[in-house]
Write the structure tokens for this entry.
Amino acid sequence: MRSLFHWFHALSRHWLYDVLHGSLFEIDHDTIKVLDWIADQESGNPESAASPACPDQIPGVDRTALQAIWNDLRVLGLFSVQEAELPRIKQNKPANLKALCLHIAHDCNLRCRYCFGETGAFGGDRSLMSPEIAFAAIDFLLQESGPYDHLELDFFGGEPLLNFETVKKTVAYGRQAAQAAQKNIHFTLTTNSYNLDDEKLAYLNAQGLLLVLSADGRPAVHDYMRLGAGGQATSERILKNIGNAVRSRNDSDYYVRGTFTRHNLDFATDVKFLYDQGFRSISVEPVIAGPEAPYAIREQDLPGIYAEYDKLADFCLECAAAGDPLRYFHFAIDLEHGPCILKLISGCGAGYDYLAVTPTGDLYPCHQFVGREGFRMGHVTTGIERTDLRQAFGGADLFAKEGCTQCWARFLCSGGCHANAHLINGDILQPDRMGCALLKKRMECALGLQGAIKELKQVSAS
């Protein structure tokens, strides 16, 4: 039953989440007692499902209340629901591309301590992508897109603004080529914002590029991790540039993206700092690092991190109640208009319908796999050579991943990050358990926040 229903506490309320249908219900403490009792009965006797007959008593629950709760749970299908066998859609689905991550620069003007790209070079030489390679990547995306009409291309690095002329040429070429193919390419640019001056910003706004703007929060936190190439502090200049960018696009089409590490486990304070700067679309995410890194998140850090997520959920609700909502990326789920079943079971599509391109044109499963031995998949001019890798990533859905099919959060995370699984366990099919724990806590906060905000709107409308 626990793989089909999940009950939890968030935002001073109790919730019941129906895993298969994506439905959320607010419940009381007596219902929690009943659910715990049912789960205990099932764990003690796995051969028998929860009985449709209401027991005579459950400790701590009034008999009349018990009968009413039992009837409600029966209506919800708690005693009869069976998980349908979902089809392995990907095995019968043609392999086509939806998106590319274009490493327009394998160089950077920052020297961030936690950079998984080894300060922009990704374990190789510092280099910039030529227009010719960028154009070939556009051609490759369009040729391999098949039935997909709406495509994505993210300018990434390193620092893309170090190769801004090629960015501009690529956008122009991409728009022209997409129009000729009767398709549309949506462009995103991820930048540390250090060189985001008025001229570059005017171009990015005019062309409608979504911006991901990197900042970690409080100046002391940011400057400890995100140093300039000369070792200098960068927060003052970067926060000023991000502020200009956000104001110039009327608080839309951007995310301020930060990272928290062992050195700022009180990261809710950093989110609030960024909010106080006038930013309303924020994502502060756990660092990507092996356990040996001095800044890596440890298992003993989890209780404190859970408490920070609770603080963030409370803060998001406060902001919503005040009419000035915070769009916190990790809490942004949509229970009413969510993704299709294919997306629910297969996740981000890395290595299958989403690839990364290096400055030399080499193809990798995603930006985090770039430079990892054994993961080069081909080249933009010759196509995908390692079809075995593509098949492996295409089959790495939640049904194939260890432990995922019995996890209550499986349709919210879709099996987790392949790159993290490989980094921590050396196998894309063995999820990073620390990442799983953090994801489940975030999803509890996100679900509770959805329910609480819906309740808030109903009260306001009445």
